[in-house]
Amino acid sequence: MIPWLPAEPIFPPVETALKEPNGLLAAGGDLAPQWLLCAYAQGIFPWYSGDEPILWWSPDPRMVLFPNELRISRSLMKTLRSKPYEVRLDSDFSAVIAACANAPRKGQAGTWIVAEMQDAYRRLHELGFAHSVETWIDGRLVGGLYGVAIGRAFYGESMFSQATDASKIALAHLVVMLQGLGFGIIDCQMETAHLARLGARPIARKDFVALLAHHVYDRIEPGRWPTHAVTDVFRNGR
User: Which of 75, 147, 150, 207 is the one with CA 20 to 30 A from 220?
Assistant: First the structure.
C-alpha cells in the first residue's frame, strides 16, 4: 500500500517507495506549483493516466545525464553542423507540451501528459521554472523537449520529433547550454536505450537525491530563457 497525501505538500521519504512498480511513492495531492516544486526538489515526480488519481514516483535507480557526459554520434554531429534548423528557447512552450502529449509512444495507447498536467506545467512555465527547447525548420516546429529547472538541476519531462533527429538536436543544445550555466545534473527519470546512447546512465536513488541537495539550492532566479536562436553552438566548431 502507498500513502494518500495530506492537504499540504508533505511527501513520505523516497526510500519508502515501492520496488514494484518501481518507485511508486504516494497518491493524491495537487499539481499546483508549490506541490510540483516541492516534489522535484526531493527527487519525486507525478506520472499517471487520466483515469487514476495523481501518482507520485521516485524510481531506483534513476536515469541521469551529466552534462559533460553527453555522447553525440558521428551522424548526429553531421546533422548539427550542416542541416538547416533553428533552435529556440521558450518561444512556444504550449505547442511543445501539446506535441509531446500527442506523440505516439511504443507500447502506450494513450498519454500521461493529460490536460491537467499540461495546465500545471504551463503554470510552472509562467513562473519561470518550466522551459522548452525547440527545433524549427523553415519556420515550423518539428521537435523539442520540455522540463523543469530548479537551481542548477534540470528535470527532463518529455520530447517529441516530427523530423529526423529533431528532438536530439534540441537535447544537444540544451546540454551544452546547461553546461555553460554550471548545471550539474539532468534528470531523465526512467532508463531507456535511447537516452543511454546519448550518454545518460542509471545511478542509485540515494546518490541522485544527494546530488539534488547540492544543486537545487543554488541561487538562480527563475525566469524565461531567452527566445533567440542558439544554432551557432555546433556550427562554430564545438
Answer: 207
Domain ranges, ordered by start, for the chain:
14-59, 63-235
pLDDT digits (tens, 9 = 90+) for 106-128: 655 557 899 999 999 999 999 99
- What CATH class does 63-235 carry? alpha beta
CATH class entry, domain 14-59:
alpha beta
Q: Model-level pTM?
A: 0.94
186: CB partners within 8 A, 6+ apart: 64, 65, 66, 67, 153, 154, 155, 156, 174, 175, 178, 200
Q: How far apart are CA 111 and CA 101, in angstroms?
A: 6
Whether the per-residue pLDDT at 84 is higher than 80: the answer is yes
Q: Rounded to whole angstroms, how far apart are CA atoms 21 and 78? A: 40
DSSP assignment of the chain: --PBP-SS--PPPGGGS-TTTTTEEEE----SHHHHHHHHHTT-EE---TTS--EEE--SSEEEE-GGG----HHHHHHHHHS--EEEESS-HHHHHHHHHHS-BTTBSS-S--HHHHHHHHHHHHTTSEEEEEEEETTEEEEEEEEEEETTEEEEEEEEESSTTHHHHHHHHHHHHHHHTT--EEEEES--HHHHHTT-EEE-HHHHHHHHHHHTTS-----PPP-S--THHHHT--
Summarised one tens digit per residue, pLDDT across range 114-173 is 999 999 999 999 999 999 999 999 999 999 999 999 999 999 999 999 999 999 999 999
